[in-house]
Design goal:
Layout: H1 3-21, E1 38-41, H2 47-58, E2 62-67, H3 70-82, E3 87-91, H4 97-111, E4 116-119, H5 136-154, E5 165-170, H6 187-194, H7 201-217, H8 230-250, E6 259-265, H9 282-294, E7 304-306, E8 309-311
Parallel strand pairs: 1-2, 1-4, 2-3, 4-5, 5-6, 6-7
Antiparallel strand pairs: 7-8
Helix pairs in contact: 2-9, 4-5, 5-8, 7-8
The protein binds NADP nicotinamide-adenine-dinucleotide phosphate.
Length: 313
Amino acid sequence: MGKSERAKERREKRLQEISLLRTIPYSDHQKWWSAETIAVVTGGNRGIGFEITRQLAAHGLTVILTSRDPNVGFEAAKVLQEGGLNVFFHQLDVLDQVSIKEFCDWLQQNYGGLDILVNNAAVNFNQGSDNSVEYASQVCTTNYCGTKNMIQALIPLMKPSSVGARIVNVSSRLGRLNGKRNKIEDLNLREQLGNVESLTEETIDGAISSFLKQVEEGTWESGGWPKTFTDYSVSKLAVNTYTRLMAKILSDRPDGQKIYINCYCPGWVKTAMTGYAGNISAEEGADTAVWLALLPDQAITGKFFAERREIRF
Ligand SMILES: NC(=O)c1ccc[n+]([C@@H]2O[C@H](COP(=O)([O-])OP(=O)(O)OC[C@H]3O[C@@H](n4cnc5c(N)ncnc54)[C@H](OP(=O)(O)O)[C@@H]3O)[C@@H](O)[C@H]2O)c1
């Protein structure tokens, strides 16, 4: 059996283990949440975001399904409400500051803030072996800046809690800094992005700007960027790196006001983003986000997960 077949077998075994784990209900002792616990999911109208919304609500939380398209989002929330779940809709475009402000005001007025933020909204314009960077700016802006926008806007609204508020960033293995494949070749940049002690937001923003500049100038192909889905990989590398940076910044908060932030890769999922060509369902892809959001153990922060296990950045 070859390496990739062995890896595939391991992954399938792990998915089976997880589907068993999911049949074990959380005990009362583990359950720190209730219907008063408020989770916000971006891009909740379809795909993995819709499933994360559904699963969190099925665990008994109140979930705010957000979507940039009000009609689609309203209909998606209605489907879940009709299933008896505490799901409510509000419009939110993670790139529109007016929309973000209106959402935050509404959330504060109606729910007094939130306990969990899932940054799921993202775009990708490549499929199969395509590697166009035609939409690189939109990809980096939505996936990285959109995630940052929501974190910055919602941190002040996160409710004090003895178990800590939580942020889960939906990311991708394609954006690994030290993965076996698809990593950036510039050792200096890798060192800067990998050293969390000296890492700054300017370093991450600088890497994105430099990539987008090369795209504009038509020189990106020799820039040593990831070779597969380059724009998307760069955007998710930024999300992963920003997750670690924010974990460090947030670690100063006093007990009772802690915020834990982690990211995860859902796997290759049958959604619109992959042209439904993935190898797992949206339900399976949502699992690790829900598990992370509900972790009973405190103080897990600044980590990267897949299939309910920590993986290397
Ligand atoms: N599918 C995979 O194999 C896979 C693998 C690794 C990681 N991921 C990640 O998983 C997450 C969910 O992806 P998916 O597969 O479920 O894709 P999807 O079906 O294309 O859903 C993406 C969601 O993001 C929303 N969105 C895009 N731009 C937005 C904006 N500016 N403001 C608010 N919402 C916006 C979309 O809204 P519209 O409906 O209005 O477009 C949609 O609801 C993404 O972060 C993705 O990168 C997916």
